[in-house]
Design goal:
Blueprint lengths: L1 H18 L3 H4 L6 H18 L9 H17 L2 H23 L8 H26 L7 E5 L6 E6 L3 E2 L3 E4 L2 E4 L8 H18 L5 H13 L3 H18 L4 H30 L2 H19 L17 H32 L2 H16 L6 H24 L1
Antiparallel strand pairs: 1-2, 2-3, 4-5
Helix pairs in contact: 1-3, 1-6, 3-5, 4-5, 4-12, 5-14, 6-7, 6-8, 7-8, 7-9, 7-13, 9-10, 9-13, 11-12, 12-13, 12-14
């Protein structure tokens, strides 16, 4: 039974990664996106049936957020919107909460660790494929896949439906294909990688240097502003955390931190200035204004799930536009406030550092309703609630 559960957890972690705008799951023309949710639901149910059952689970935090989500569900209306909202928030979110609440303290981060392992394997494999196909041209793309999910119809060059070229980038006068692996654009692949790197650096007790190297190189290969800033911020946070445990690292961090901060400031400033001079900056500004206007129409409940029709460039503003302050309450309470409150009580830095970096990329990357983020809501709801409950029982 344990082996079956282990296999299903790895499969679930893989499916959760693919759910974040992979060509296979998100491409409307392929038409398997909604089917993938059912597959994920069945695999999750399999994980729950094969894990040990706990006798007591505190349902109060779940019931609070389900009440808010049910109000949003009733206010939405619409067939497809109703189905997707129900699957994500009224079925998968509670099931993931029960799944995480049912785990022992030693294994409660098992799915997160498996997610990191799976994404590391994806990163290593597609780093090699990207170099072979898009950089050195040793292997050529041999087919095209239709896609219309990013504002206009396009044909994606593909190698045997296994790897996709979605965007290029001009570097020193030379055009490079950015690494997007099996995802619909490099920034969303970058998000998947950054979450995995955060888990590797801050949550695992033993860091795997090879995993960190693969994830770092993969993030750089996406050639994204967010990825470069994330790597710099991760380096600074790692020095802050490690300096408390090792006298040598503490001394080294004191010597190098000023140089790292100056380097980070210069790098981020130049990156943002380059971005500000591009058409991308103007487009993002326009979309932010549009989402803000939608939010002000109904600040408490938003305009409705999947009803925003413009381009999206920011998860937090998209969330506010569609779900208002009610949806923001569900997200911010769990993926930001709960870890911060835990840090205030326990002075444990790993979670506040990880969640700060996670929230940074969540804020600026699209896709607030994908399962990576719903998994994080369910996990923090179960994990930090159990920690508080255990602490009360010990006292």
């Amino acid at each position: 039974m344990k082996r079956i559960n282990n296999f299903l957890e790895y499969l679930l972690a893989f499916l959760i990664a693919l759910d974040y705008y992979s060509v296979y799951f998100a491409n409307q023309l392929l038409g398997i996106g909604r089917t993938s949710l059912i597959i994920i639901l069945l695999v999750l149910l399999g994980c729950m049936l094969t894990q040990k059952q706990r006798k007591t689970i505190n349902l109060r935090p779940l019931l609070l957020f389900l009440t808010v989500l049910f109000v949003l569900f009733v206010s939405n209306g619409g067939g497809t919107r109703l189905f997707l909202f129900a699957i994500h928030y009224l079925i998968l979110l509670p099931l993931l909460f029960f799944y995480f609440s049912n785990q022992d303290k030693e294994s409660n981060m098992s799915l997160l660790f498996k997610y990191s392992n799976v994404v590391t394997c994806i990163g290593g494999f597609y780093l090699f494929i990207w170099l072979m196909v898009s950089i050195f041209g040793i292997v050529k793309t041999n087919m095209s896949v239709p896609d219309n999910d990013w504002g206009e119809f396009r044909l994606l060059p593909s190698y045997n439906f296994l790897y996709f070229e979605t965007q290029s980038y001009l570097v020193l006068g030379r055009e490079f294909i950015r690494n997007s692996a099996i995802f619909e654009e490099p920034p969303v692949y970058n998000f998947v990688l950054c979450v995995a790197l955060g888990i590797e650096v801050f949550l695992k007790k033993t860091r795997n240097s090879m995993h960190i190297l693969i994830l770092t190189l993969s993030i750089l290969s996406t050639i994204t502003v967010t990825g470069q800033i994330f790597l710099l911020a991760t380096l600074v946070c790692w020095f802050l955390q490690s300096g408390k445990k090792s006298a040598k690292i503490k001394m080294l961090s004191r010597l190098l931190l000023p140089f790292i901060v100056v380097f980070a400031y210069i790098s981020i400033k130049s990156i943002l200035e380059e971005k500000a001079s591009s058409h991308s900056y103007e487009t993002r500004t326009d979309t932010l204004k549009m989402m803000l206007n939608n939010f002000t129409q109904n600040p408490f409940l938003g305009i409705g799930y999947k009803r925003y029709q413009g381009e999206v460039s920011n998860s937090m503003m998209h969330l506010l536009a569609e779900g208002g302050l009610a949806m923001a309450f569900v997200y911010l309470t769990n993926i930001l406030i709960a870890p911060i409150m835990n840090w205030i009580r326990t002075h444990e830095t790993k979670w506040v550092l990880f969640i700060s970096l996670y929230f940074m990329i969540f804020f600026v990357t699209i896709g607030y309703d994908n399962l990576i983020n719903i998994m994080m809501i369910a996990f923090t709801m179960a994990y930090f609630n159990r920690n508080v409950k255990s602490k009360i029982q010990l006292q």
